[in-house]
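Fill in residues.
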């Protein structure tokens, strides 16, 4: 949570996304949208912030249908 405080207003949303990723570490934006009941733009922005912090990373290399696994250090 300490790292998430640095992203300001996005912190509660990012925490919700992070918790969803703990339950299912490999997820798409669509799956996270469904799991959290947040909108796609909200999930996408939160994931960008989490990616900047090194918590998640996009693995497909595609603009659509991205898959974002949670970084292993947050799994502890």
């Amino acid at each position: 949570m300490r790292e998430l405080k640095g992203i300001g207003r996005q912190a509660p949303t990012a925490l919700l996304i992070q918790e969803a990723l703990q339950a299912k570490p490999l997820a798409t934006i669509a799956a996270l949208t469904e799991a959290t009941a947040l909108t796609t733009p909200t999930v996408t922005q939160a994931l960008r912030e989490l990616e900047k912090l090194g918590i998640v990373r996009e693995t497909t290399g595609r603009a659509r249908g991205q898959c974002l696994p949670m970084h292993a250090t947050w799994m502890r």
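Helices lie at 11-23, 29-36, 40-52.
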